[in-house]
Specification:
The protein is α/β, with parallel strands linked by helices. It has two domains: 13-76 and 147-267, P-loop containing nucleotide triphosphate hydrolases (Rossmann fold), CATH 3.40.50; 86-143, no CATH class. The chain has eight helices and nine strands. The strands form two sheets. The chain has a six-stranded mixed β-sheet, sandwiched between helices. Helix 3 packs across helix 4 (129-141) and helix 4 runs parallel beside helix 5. The longest helix has 18 residues, at 159-176. The chain is globular.
Length: 269
């Protein structure tokens, strides 16, 4: 896989021996990492490993009790939360939601960037899971951030449509030249949709390219060997419901604990 030309620039965020202890419980310890423009970095780990806690520390939403975080001065961030609770009685359109607190943002451009222009006038409360994730992604990328931070970006999306979400993320990275930091516990696709993987379980167990991490003893101890990344060539696309929308047939499974495939590998190797 070719390295992105921006990947050797000044780091967007650097963490040095980062740790968090609350009420005598060590949630994270000795986390050291760098995030660069042009790279998709995925944090994986079992439930309770501290993945979302790490995001909060890196974003400055929680203060560490050990180590430090350095962010590039003036760093523009785009954040996509894991969940968004919508009151069904609240009359808010998608366009209004994208523009909240961002008066200068072009709603049409933001939605078109993720293929959701047709949703501008839709009620936010009426969106499907896949549509909601697409709108959240549009909002996160609307200010053209230097770092896009995504917490479980395929939450509530059908397994077949998850590949489309990762394709959109890769397209945003290429278009904006931004770094992408995402958290996921779903390994069936994410290992093939990222440049670097950081596996944590309160500390960094292993890190590196997906192929390297998938063979690491620490990774295998946590997840076994049933989710090692693979790729296949196919001539179709899925929508966020998992249906094929353009040409061809699909020979990969859309269910079960199976290895991932890549929607971007053909032009990224």
């Amino acid at each position: 896989m070719a390295e992105h030309p921006l990947s050797h620039s000044e780091p967007l965020i650097t963490a040095d021996q980062l740790g968090l202890e609350i009420a005598g419980r060590q949630l994270l310890q000795d986390i050291t990492l760098e995030l660069h423009a042009g790279e998709i970095v995925t944090v994986i780990g079992p439930n309770g490993a501290g993945k979302t806690t790490l995001l909060r520390l890196l974003l400055g939403l929680t203060a560490p009790t050990g180590g430090r975080v350095r962010r590039r001065p003036g760093l523009r961030l785009g954040y996509m939360p894991q969940r968004l609770q919508i009151d069904p009685s609240m009359p808010m359109s998608v366009a209004r939601f994208v523009q909240l607190g961002q008066a200068r943002v072009s709603v049409a451009e933001a939605l078109e960037r993720v293929g959701a222009g047709h949703l501008a006038d839709a009620s936010l409360a009426a969106l499907s899971g896949g549509e909601m994730q697409r709108v959240l992604l549009a909002r996160a990328a609307s200010r053209k951030p230097q770092l896009l931070v995504l917490d479980e970006p395929t939450q509530g999306v059908d397994l077949g449509g998850q590949g489309e979400v990762y394709r959109l993320i890769a397209n945003l990275r290429d278009e904006l030249g931004c770094g992408v930091l995402l958290v996921s516990h779903d390994l069936h696709l994410v290992m093939a949709a990222t440049d670097q993987v950081i596996c944590i379980n309160q500390h960094i167990c292993c890190h590196g390219a997906p192929e390297q991490v998938s063979r690491d003893p620490a990774y295998l101890e946590l997840f076994g060997d049933k989710v090692a990344p693979y790729t296949h060539q196919h001539n179709h696309e899925h929508d966020l419901s998992g249906d094929i929308v353009h040409g061809g047939t699909c020979d990969h499974p859309h269910s079960g604990n199976r290895a991932p495939h890549s929607h971007r590998q053909q032009n990224r190797e």
